[in-house]
Design brief:
Layout (H helix, E strand, L loop, with lengths): L4 H7 L17 H4 L2 H14 L13 H16 L19 H4 L3 H13 L1 H14 L1 H11 L4 H10 L13 H4 L7 H22 L5 H15 L1 H16 L5 H18 L1 H9 L14 H4 L3 H9 L11 H15 L5 H18 L1 H8 L14 H30 L5 H15 L1 H42 L3 E3 L11 E2 L2 E2 H4 L7 E2 L10 H5 L6 H7 L1 E7 L9 E6 L2 E5 L6 E12 L4 H9 L2 H4 L2 E7 L20 E9 L4 E8 L3 E8 L4 E5 L2 E3 L2 E3 L3 E6 L2 E9 L5 H41 L1
Parallel strand pairs: 1-4, 1-5, 8-9
Antiparallel strand pairs: 2-3, 5-7, 6-7, 8-12, 10-11, 11-17, 12-16, 13-14, 13-17, 15-16
Helix pairs in contact: 3-7, 3-8, 3-9, 4-6, 6-7, 8-9, 8-11, 9-21, 11-12, 11-13, 11-14, 12-13, 12-14, 12-29, 13-14, 13-19, 14-29, 17-19, 18-19, 18-21, 19-21, 21-22
């Protein structure tokens, strides 16, 4: 915010792209005083957000994330020390969640949970990442060459952001009362550092620049794909902000880009390998979440303060505007100014999305899976740093003015007054965020009370379900009575996720191919319960299932009902073929699930993603008058992706495992390997002949993680020691050449 007299000349914006340095002479206080801003921001978060440490039932996407942590912790306890892949059975009829999703945060937390306990570690991780985010902003700003005052001012502003969408780098994104974007929080913490290290590497400054940049950017990718993707795009901005020496800069950027990709290969390669099985939900297509809202809406939110100060006086937005003006004025002389404006512009294009910039965005690889609405995060982080520039410029200007008008006033006194003025200027924003944190804590306290009373009664029935096993549990859907069946503020279908119950109803949480069809579950159709192996129904007292069911138990106001199903395995006839891919699973399969053939117990085989469907077991004109067969679940270990049973087929038929199809499924029939295939609504199946058989479905994860991790490690070693070895080798050759030339001249 304030530049001391000794450093003001050095802080003037450089005409070249070398990193500016503050003059080390003079008093020490200007170098350490900006840390006061960092400390204020961190202490504010640590104090006001402390309610987040309370052990409470999640009410948002944290339920999925914490369920993933518990799955990984259990795998570690079972001896799988690196659970990079495996069958995650609890949501959307199962999914290879850890290879389809950014799982590094969950793995790190799982290992920490071995010491501190799962629930506590999950809460502390999110709490500290947000509260200490100002440290990352400060470090990233400094790495990008900004003065300590500018970096400190940016850190001061960072906890104050609040947007109209609630999906940016703000408290609502991560708190219990908010959206629970737990993985994004890890990416958020790393992004300023990824910017800083990759900027230094592209600039060609600092020791170990390539290894550090590749490591931090690679980890960012593994923490949160959307943030990592954005970081890779940011490297392109770092290249073009200076035209002089463009080719060497492109080369350095390629080293960072390629190095980061290789470091993150252990998460990226499996994802790309199975990209066809990553659901492209019809509920996201052509929506704000995927396409964003267009430049006019983005500009309206920006100029009305809704991106940085939604619902309050736009103090942060004004500081951003000042920073933009300052950087625009320094555009030609200061490469750092061009970097921030370039990052802001790129973020604006992404956040505006396809309605305005689809002709550009559609050129990006993998653009169909980019949730463009989330890229407000780039505008917020670049805006935060611009606000730091604006606040520091204002402070420096006032400092100079006071020193000119009142030269006898001591600089320390001026600095103290300006620090106090900065805090007073932003006080309304601090009060606004403190009020939100207080409401979040109050809501958590209320939920804790509900958990200990109404939730305790429900836990009795959940324990009953767990002990009985053998099927999934249904407690309504978001689109029906399930939304009103709540414990405090937590829907019971979400409450089940926090207790590792294999359920149907907490929809659209994973990339499972079945999640869209799950949302169309017909609770009035007995055949649908059999199809999805929904054996248990939880309902509040006063309600009864719309299909035949037996009341098992009552606890408090909750009732547990049992519905007869065949189990996870079923012998069926298959007739007809449905064509589908990851973008239209429900659209293509729901017509069959409403057909007479389905009501007769038949399923269709699926020609998936342009492939060839398995041959149906029934001839086209056949009309069977008896069941295809029967099955008995013999050994079910959902956590480990193992389903075994004994089946009796009355004729050639399909044995269906009521779990999402994935190329990782391996099937044996009577000890012999058999080829699995997909059937409606996206299950895995295998054909058997007449007679009694032992059938085993086993999920086998991706097998090349060790190789990919080794590639990443070797990449870091080469980037870390390669430049040094190269310089030493060239140095020796040059020295030898000079000696030889000298001898020749003599």
């Amino acid at each position: 915010m304030i530049a001391p007299p000794q450093s003001r000349v050095r802080q003037a914006q450089p005409a070249v792209d070398a990193k500016p340095r503050e003059v080390p002479t003079g008093p020490r206080w200007p170098r350490y005083a900006p840390w006061l801003f960092v400390a204020v921001a961190c202490v504010f978060g640590l104090v006001t957000m402390s309610g987040e440490l309370t052990i409470v039932q999640p009410v948002n996407d944290e339920a999925l994330h914490f369920e993933m942590v518990r799955w990984a912790t259990q795998q570690i306890h079972e001896g799988n020390l690196l659970p990079f892949d495996g069958w995650f059975p609890y949501l959307a009829l199962g999914n290879a969640q850890f290879s389809h999703y950014q799982s590094l945060p969950h793995l790190i937390t799982a290992y920490m949970s071995l010491v501190f306990g799962t629930d506590s570690t999950e809460r502390w991780a999110g709490y500290l990442l947000f509260a200490l985010f100002p440290l990352s902003v400060y470090a990233g700003s400094r790495l990008m060459g900004w003065s300590s005052w500018t970096a400190g001012a940016a850190a001061l502003v960072s906890p104050l952001l609040v947007s109209v969408t609630g999906y940016g780098y703000e408290s609502f994104s991560y708190t219990w009362l908010g959206n629970g974007l737990w993985s994004q929080e890890w990416g958020m913490f790393l992004l300023p550092l990824a910017w800083g290290f990759s900027w230094r590497a592209v600039q060609g400054t600092g020791r170990g620049k390539y290894a550090l940049a590749a490591l931090v950017v690679g980890i960012t990718i593994a923490m949160h794909y959307l943030t990592g993707y954005f970081t890779l795009l940011s490297i392109g901005v770092f290249v073009i902000v200076v035209w002089r020496g463009l080719l060497p800069r492109i080369g350095r950027a390629a080293v960072v880009f390629g190095g980061a990709a290789l470091v993150a290969a252990w998460v990226v390669v499996p994802l790309l390998t199975d990209a066809a099985y990553f659901n492209d939900s019809i509920f996201n297509q052509n929506t704000f979440w995927l396409n964003s809202s267009g430049a006019p809406q983005a500009l309206q939110w920006l100029f009305t303060g809704q991106l940085f100060d939604s619902g309050r006086f736009p103090i942060v937005s004004l500081l951003v505007a000042v920073g933009v003006v300052v950087c625009a004025c320094r555009f030609r002389s200061d490469v750092r100014a061009r970097v921030l404006l370039g990052l802001m512009a790129m973020s604006f294009v992404l956040f505006s999305g396809r309605p305005t910039f689809g002709f550009l965005i559609n050129l990006l690889p993998g653009n169909a899976d980019l949730f463009l609405s989330r890229y407000m995060m780039g505008m917020q982080l670049a805006g935060d740093m611009l606000a730091g520039v604006g606040l520091a410029w204002a402070g420096e200007s006032v400092f100079r003015l006071v020193r000119t008008l009142r030269p006898r006033v001591r600089p320390v006194a001026i600095a103290a007054g300006l620090v106090a003025a900065a805090l007073l200027l932003t006080l309304p924003a601090w009060l606004n965020r403190a009020a939100y944190a207080a409401s979040d804590s109050a809501s958590i306290a209320t939920q804790v009370e509900s958990d200990s009373t109404d939730g305790a009664a429900l836990n009795v029935l959940i324990n009953d379900i767990t002990s009985r096993g053998g099927g999934r549990t249904y407690a309504g859907l978001p689109g029906n009575w399930g939304a009103q069946y709540v414990i405090g503020q937590v829907p019971v279908y979400e409450y089940l996720a926090d207790h590792n119950v294999d359920e149907l109803g907490f929809v659209l949480r994973t990339s499972s191919l079945l999640t869209d069809n799950e949302a169309y579950f017909n609770q009035a159709d007995p055949a649908s319960y059999q199809l999805y192996n929904v054996r248990y129904v939880l309902m509040p007292s006063g309600m009864t299932p719309p299909v035949p069911a037996t009341l098992l138990a009552t606890s408090g106001r909750h009732q547990l009902w049992l519905i007869a199903t065949s189990g996870y395995l079923q012998v069926v006839d298959t007739s007809g073929v449905v064509e589908a891919d990851r973008s239209d699973m429900a659209a293509q399969m729901q017509p069959f699930l409403r057909s007479p053939a389905f009501q007769q117990g038949e399923l269709a085989t699926v020609a998936f993603d342009g492939g060839t469907a398995a041959a149906p077991t029934l001839p086209a004109t056949a009309t069977p008058d008896s069941p295809a067969g029967s099955s008995t679940d013999a050994l079910i270990e959902e956590q480990d992706g193992y389903f075994a049973g004994t089946v009796t087929a009355n004729r050639t038929a399909a044995v269906v495992l009521k779990a999402t199809f994935d190329p990782g499924w391996h099937v044996t029939v009577d000890g012999q390997a058999a080829k699995p295939y997909m059937v409606v609504p996206g299950f895995v199946a295998v054909t058997v002949g007449p007679g009694t058989h032992t059938v085993i479905f086993q999920y086998v994860g991706y097998s090349h993680y060790a190789l990919l991790l080794g590639i990443g490690a070797v990449t870091l070693l080469l980037l870390g020691f390669g430049p040094w070895i190269w310089r030493e080798k060239i140095g020796r050759l040059v020295k030898r050449r000079r000696v030889l030339i000298g001898r020749g001249a003599a």
